[in-house]
Backbone:
Protein backbone atom coordinates (compact mmCIF):
# COMPACT_ATOMS: atom_id res chain seq x y z
CA UNK A 1 0.00 0.00 0.00
CA UNK A 2 1.09 3.62 -0.37
CA UNK A 3 1.17 5.93 2.60
CA UNK A 4 2.23 9.50 3.24
CA UNK A 5 4.71 10.76 5.80
CA UNK A 6 3.73 14.14 7.19
CA UNK A 7 6.66 16.56 6.99
CA UNK A 8 6.75 20.28 7.69
CA UNK A 9 8.68 22.51 5.33
CA UNK A 10 10.62 25.62 6.36
CA UNK A 11 7.61 27.84 5.64
CA UNK A 12 5.38 25.75 7.90
CA UNK A 13 3.43 24.07 5.09
CA UNK A 14 2.67 20.37 5.53
CA UNK A 15 4.16 18.10 2.89
CA UNK A 16 3.45 14.46 2.25
CA UNK A 17 6.07 12.00 0.99
CA UNK A 18 4.70 8.72 -0.44
CA UNK A 19 6.10 5.29 0.28
CA UNK A 20 4.75 1.81 -0.38
CA UNK A 21 3.80 -1.21 1.72
CA UNK A 22 2.17 -4.44 0.55
CA UNK A 23 -0.83 -5.95 2.37
CA UNK A 24 -0.71 -9.75 2.72
CA UNK A 25 -4.14 -10.81 4.03
CA UNK A 26 -3.29 -14.53 3.80
CA UNK A 27 0.27 -14.24 5.06
CA UNK A 28 2.44 -16.90 3.45
CA UNK A 29 -0.45 -19.32 2.69
CA UNK A 30 -0.25 -20.51 -0.92
CA UNK A 31 -1.64 -23.27 -3.13
CA UNK A 32 1.67 -23.68 -5.00
CA UNK A 33 5.07 -24.91 -3.85
CA UNK A 34 7.56 -23.03 -6.00
CA UNK A 35 11.04 -24.42 -5.36
CA UNK A 36 12.65 -20.99 -5.00
CA UNK A 37 9.94 -19.44 -2.78
CA UNK A 38 11.43 -17.62 0.20
CA UNK A 39 8.06 -16.97 1.83
CA UNK A 40 6.13 -20.23 2.05
CA UNK A 41 7.69 -21.25 5.41
CA UNK A 42 7.50 -17.82 7.08
CA UNK A 43 4.48 -18.73 9.23
CA UNK A 44 6.19 -21.75 10.78
CA UNK A 45 9.43 -19.82 11.22
CA UNK A 46 7.51 -17.20 13.20
CA UNK A 47 5.80 -19.83 15.31
CA UNK A 48 2.35 -19.72 13.72
CA UNK A 49 0.42 -22.90 13.05
CA UNK A 50 -2.22 -23.29 10.35
CA UNK A 51 -3.32 -20.47 8.05
CA UNK A 52 -2.68 -16.84 8.90
CA UNK A 53 -5.78 -15.01 7.64
CA UNK A 54 -6.67 -11.34 8.14
CA UNK A 55 -9.91 -10.97 10.09
CA UNK A 56 -12.70 -8.65 8.94
CA UNK A 57 -12.09 -6.54 12.04
CA UNK A 58 -8.44 -6.10 11.08
CA UNK A 59 -9.45 -5.45 7.49
CA UNK A 60 -11.70 -2.55 8.46
CA UNK A 61 -9.13 -1.14 10.87
CA UNK A 62 -6.45 -1.32 8.19
CA UNK A 63 -8.57 0.25 5.42
CA UNK A 64 -9.88 3.04 7.64
CA UNK A 65 -6.50 4.08 9.04
CA UNK A 66 -4.72 3.72 5.73
CA UNK A 67 -7.23 5.87 3.84
CA UNK A 68 -7.37 8.51 6.56
CA UNK A 69 -3.56 8.77 6.50
CA UNK A 70 -3.94 10.34 3.04
CA UNK A 71 -5.12 13.92 2.58
CA UNK A 72 -8.45 14.36 0.81
CA UNK A 73 -8.08 14.62 -2.94
CA UNK A 74 -5.12 12.22 -3.00
CA UNK A 75 -4.96 8.76 -4.56
CA UNK A 76 -4.90 5.75 -2.23
CA UNK A 77 -3.37 2.61 -3.75
CA UNK A 78 -4.23 -0.76 -2.22
CA UNK A 79 -1.94 -3.68 -3.13
CA UNK A 80 -3.11 -7.19 -2.21
CA UNK A 81 -0.42 -9.85 -2.14
CA UNK A 82 0.38 -13.29 -0.73
CA UNK A 83 1.18 -16.11 -0.41
CA UNK A 84 -1.70 -16.49 -2.81
CA UNK A 85 -4.21 -13.71 -2.18
CA UNK A 86 -7.07 -15.42 -4.06
CA UNK A 87 -7.16 -18.25 -1.50
CA UNK A 88 -9.43 -15.94 0.47
CA UNK A 89 -13.13 -16.05 -0.48
CA UNK A 90 -14.11 -13.35 -2.95
CA UNK A 91 -16.46 -12.00 -0.30
CA UNK A 92 -13.41 -10.75 1.63
CA UNK A 93 -12.44 -8.43 -1.21
CA UNK A 94 -16.04 -7.37 -1.82
CA UNK A 95 -16.10 -6.31 1.82
CA UNK A 96 -12.82 -4.46 1.28
CA UNK A 97 -14.35 -2.46 -1.58
CA UNK A 98 -17.39 -1.63 0.57
CA UNK A 99 -15.10 -0.35 3.31
CA UNK A 100 -13.01 1.66 0.85
CA UNK A 101 -16.16 3.40 -0.37
CA UNK A 102 -17.28 3.98 3.22
CA UNK A 103 -14.07 5.75 4.26
CA UNK A 104 -12.89 7.25 0.94
CA UNK A 105 -14.25 10.78 1.56
CA UNK A 106 -13.10 12.55 -1.62
CA UNK A 107 -10.06 10.33 -2.17
CA UNK A 108 -9.29 8.28 -5.28
CA UNK A 109 -9.10 4.57 -4.50
CA UNK A 110 -7.24 2.03 -6.65
CA UNK A 111 -6.60 -1.68 -6.15
CA UNK A 112 -4.08 -4.14 -7.53
CA UNK A 113 -3.84 -7.87 -6.93
CA UNK A 114 -0.75 -10.07 -7.28
CA UNK A 115 -1.67 -13.69 -7.98
CA UNK A 116 -0.42 -16.88 -9.57
CA UNK A 117 -3.69 -16.91 -11.53
CA UNK A 118 -4.54 -20.56 -10.88
CA UNK A 119 -7.68 -19.86 -8.84
CA UNK A 120 -9.21 -17.19 -11.08
CA UNK A 121 -12.67 -17.94 -12.44
CA UNK A 122 -15.58 -16.07 -14.04
CA UNK A 123 -16.87 -14.75 -10.72
CA UNK A 124 -13.46 -13.39 -9.82
CA UNK A 125 -13.06 -11.77 -13.23
CA UNK A 126 -16.47 -10.10 -13.11
CA UNK A 127 -15.47 -8.58 -9.76
CA UNK A 128 -12.05 -7.45 -10.99
CA UNK A 129 -13.52 -5.88 -14.13
CA UNK A 130 -16.41 -4.18 -12.33
CA UNK A 131 -14.07 -2.58 -9.80
CA UNK A 132 -11.27 -1.82 -12.24
CA UNK A 133 -8.56 -3.78 -10.41
CA UNK A 134 -5.09 -4.15 -11.91
CA UNK A 135 -3.81 -7.74 -11.78
CA UNK A 136 -0.22 -8.96 -11.59
CA UNK A 137 0.35 -12.54 -12.75
CA UNK A 138 3.34 -14.57 -11.54
CA UNK A 139 4.64 -16.58 -14.50
CA UNK A 140 8.22 -17.43 -15.50
CA UNK A 141 7.85 -18.09 -19.23
CA UNK A 142 6.50 -20.87 -21.42
CA UNK A 143 5.49 -24.29 -20.07
CA UNK A 144 8.96 -25.76 -20.17
CA UNK A 145 10.62 -23.05 -18.08
CA UNK A 146 7.65 -22.16 -15.89
CA UNK A 147 7.00 -25.73 -14.77
CA UNK A 148 10.66 -26.26 -13.92
CA UNK A 149 10.21 -24.58 -10.53
CA UNK A 150 6.60 -23.42 -10.16
CA UNK A 151 4.95 -26.62 -8.94
CA UNK A 152 1.61 -27.47 -7.34
CA UNK A 153 1.38 -29.03 -3.89
CA UNK A 154 1.46 -32.46 -5.56
CA UNK A 155 4.59 -31.63 -7.56
CA UNK A 156 2.89 -31.06 -10.91
CA UNK A 157 3.49 -28.11 -13.21
CA UNK A 158 1.18 -25.11 -12.82
CA UNK A 159 1.57 -23.54 -16.27
CA UNK A 160 -1.72 -24.69 -17.80
CA UNK A 161 -3.71 -23.41 -14.82
CA UNK A 162 -1.91 -20.06 -14.94
CA UNK A 163 -2.61 -19.69 -18.65
CA UNK A 164 -6.26 -20.49 -18.05
CA UNK A 165 -6.33 -17.54 -15.64
CA UNK A 166 -4.64 -15.27 -18.18
CA UNK A 167 -7.16 -16.24 -20.87
CA UNK A 168 -9.97 -15.33 -18.49
CA UNK A 169 -8.38 -11.93 -17.80
CA UNK A 170 -8.07 -11.28 -21.53
CA UNK A 171 -11.64 -12.43 -22.17
CA UNK A 172 -12.99 -9.97 -19.60
CA UNK A 173 -10.72 -7.14 -20.73
CA UNK A 174 -8.95 -6.87 -17.37
CA UNK A 175 -5.65 -4.98 -17.31
CA UNK A 176 -2.82 -7.25 -16.19
CA UNK A 177 0.94 -7.29 -15.99
CA UNK A 178 3.40 -10.14 -15.50
CA UNK A 179 6.01 -10.76 -12.84
CA UNK A 180 8.68 -13.33 -13.67
CA UNK A 181 11.61 -14.81 -11.80
CA UNK A 182 14.81 -15.10 -13.84
CA UNK A 183 16.59 -18.27 -12.76
CA UNK A 184 19.36 -20.56 -13.94
CA UNK A 185 17.06 -22.10 -16.56
CA UNK A 186 15.14 -19.32 -18.30
CA UNK A 187 18.15 -16.97 -18.18
CA UNK A 188 19.55 -19.14 -20.97
CA UNK A 189 16.76 -18.03 -23.33
CA UNK A 190 16.21 -14.25 -22.99
CA UNK A 191 14.71 -13.75 -26.45
CA UNK A 192 12.35 -16.71 -26.11
CA UNK A 193 11.42 -15.27 -22.71
CA UNK A 194 10.57 -11.88 -24.19
CA UNK A 195 8.66 -13.23 -27.20
CA UNK A 196 6.60 -15.52 -24.99
CA UNK A 197 5.28 -12.63 -22.92
CA UNK A 198 4.68 -10.49 -25.97
CA UNK A 199 2.80 -13.39 -27.55
CA UNK A 200 0.35 -13.82 -24.68
CA UNK A 201 -0.65 -10.16 -24.72
CA UNK A 202 1.44 -8.94 -21.78
CA UNK A 203 1.98 -5.18 -21.94
CA UNK A 204 4.23 -4.70 -18.91
CA UNK A 205 6.75 -7.21 -17.63
CA UNK A 206 8.54 -7.08 -14.29
CA UNK A 207 11.34 -9.57 -13.71
CA UNK A 208 13.69 -10.32 -10.87
CA UNK A 209 16.79 -12.52 -10.66
CA UNK A 210 16.74 -15.22 -8.02
CA UNK A 211 19.95 -15.47 -6.00
CA UNK A 212 19.69 -17.54 -2.84
CA UNK A 213 22.40 -18.88 -0.57
CA UNK A 214 21.84 -22.40 0.69
CA UNK A 215 21.14 -22.97 4.38
CA UNK A 216 23.72 -24.75 6.49
CA UNK A 217 21.27 -27.57 7.13
CA UNK A 218 20.24 -27.81 3.48
CA UNK A 219 20.54 -31.11 1.63
CA UNK A 220 22.20 -29.15 -1.17
CA UNK A 221 25.98 -29.05 -0.95
CA UNK A 222 28.54 -27.92 -3.49
CA UNK A 223 32.12 -27.20 -2.55
CA UNK A 224 32.40 -24.86 -5.52
CA UNK A 225 29.35 -22.73 -4.77
CA UNK A 226 27.42 -21.33 -1.84
CA UNK A 227 24.23 -20.50 -3.77
CA UNK A 228 21.26 -22.69 -4.57
CA UNK A 229 21.41 -24.34 -8.01
CA UNK A 230 18.33 -22.46 -9.30
CA UNK A 231 20.10 -19.12 -8.78
CA UNK A 232 20.92 -17.10 -11.89
CA UNK A 233 24.64 -16.54 -12.41
CA UNK A 234 25.84 -12.89 -12.61
CA UNK A 235 27.13 -13.24 -16.16
CA UNK A 236 23.84 -14.83 -17.30
CA UNK A 237 21.81 -12.07 -15.66
CA UNK A 238 24.00 -9.43 -17.26
CA UNK A 239 23.71 -11.08 -20.68
CA UNK A 240 19.95 -11.41 -20.21
CA UNK A 241 19.46 -7.69 -19.56
CA UNK A 242 22.00 -6.52 -22.12
CA UNK A 243 20.40 -8.59 -24.88
CA UNK A 244 16.95 -7.24 -24.07
CA UNK A 245 18.17 -3.67 -24.00
CA UNK A 246 20.05 -4.02 -27.28
CA UNK A 247 17.14 -5.66 -29.12
CA UNK A 248 14.12 -3.85 -27.71
CA UNK A 249 15.09 -0.68 -25.86
CA UNK A 250 17.47 0.75 -28.46
CA UNK A 251 14.86 3.23 -29.63
CA UNK A 252 15.36 5.31 -26.47
CA UNK A 253 18.41 7.55 -26.41
CA UNK A 254 18.42 7.22 -22.63
CA UNK A 255 17.55 4.12 -20.64
CA UNK A 256 15.33 4.58 -17.59
CA UNK A 257 14.85 1.33 -15.71
CA UNK A 258 13.39 1.40 -12.19
CA UNK A 259 15.37 -1.00 -10.04
CA UNK A 260 13.86 -2.07 -6.73
CA UNK A 261 16.28 -3.46 -4.18
CA UNK A 262 14.52 -5.57 -1.56
CA UNK A 263 16.52 -6.26 1.56
CA UNK A 264 14.43 -8.86 3.34
CA UNK A 265 12.55 -9.04 5.54
CA UNK A 266 11.35 -5.45 5.89
CA UNK A 267 13.17 -2.82 3.90
CA UNK A 268 12.88 -1.63 0.33
CA UNK A 269 15.13 0.80 -1.50
CA UNK A 270 14.14 2.16 -4.90
CA UNK A 271 16.65 3.61 -7.33
CA UNK A 272 16.58 4.75 -10.94
CA UNK A 273 19.40 3.79 -13.29
CA UNK A 274 19.69 6.44 -15.99
CA UNK A 275 22.49 6.08 -18.53
CA UNK A 276 23.04 6.31 -22.28
CA UNK A 277 22.70 2.86 -23.80
CA UNK A 278 26.17 3.00 -25.34
CA UNK A 279 27.77 3.40 -21.89
CA UNK A 280 25.45 1.17 -19.86
CA UNK A 281 27.04 -2.05 -18.58
CA UNK A 282 24.54 -4.04 -16.55
CA UNK A 283 27.32 -6.42 -15.47
CA UNK A 284 29.03 -3.60 -13.62
CA UNK A 285 25.73 -2.54 -12.04
CA UNK A 286 24.89 -6.09 -10.96
CA UNK A 287 28.37 -6.66 -9.51
CA UNK A 288 28.24 -3.37 -7.64
CA UNK A 289 24.84 -4.14 -6.16
CA UNK A 290 25.66 -7.67 -5.07
CA UNK A 291 28.89 -6.81 -3.27
CA UNK A 292 27.49 -3.74 -1.55
CA UNK A 293 25.57 -5.65 1.11
CA UNK A 294 26.52 -8.17 3.84
CA UNK A 295 27.08 -11.72 2.67
CA UNK A 296 24.00 -13.00 4.54
CA UNK A 297 21.66 -10.43 2.98
CA UNK A 298 19.05 -11.75 0.56
CA UNK A 299 18.84 -9.44 -2.43
CA UNK A 300 16.10 -9.07 -5.01
CA UNK A 301 16.32 -6.73 -7.99
CA UNK A 302 13.10 -5.82 -9.76
CA UNK A 303 13.25 -4.53 -13.33
CA UNK A 304 10.10 -3.39 -15.12
CA UNK A 305 9.84 -2.76 -18.85
CA UNK A 306 7.08 -1.98 -21.30
CA UNK A 307 6.91 -4.54 -24.09
CA UNK A 308 6.89 -3.04 -27.57
CA UNK A 309 3.67 -3.09 -29.55
Residues:
Amino acid sequence: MSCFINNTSENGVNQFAPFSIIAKPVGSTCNLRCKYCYYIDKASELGYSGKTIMTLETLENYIKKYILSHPEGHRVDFIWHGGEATILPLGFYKKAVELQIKYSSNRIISNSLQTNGTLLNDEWCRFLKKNNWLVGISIDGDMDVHDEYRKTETGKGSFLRVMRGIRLLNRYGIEWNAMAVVNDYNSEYPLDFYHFFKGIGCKYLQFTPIVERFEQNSTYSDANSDIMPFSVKPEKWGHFLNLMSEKYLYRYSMLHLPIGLKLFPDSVLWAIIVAPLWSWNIMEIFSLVTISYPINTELEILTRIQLEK
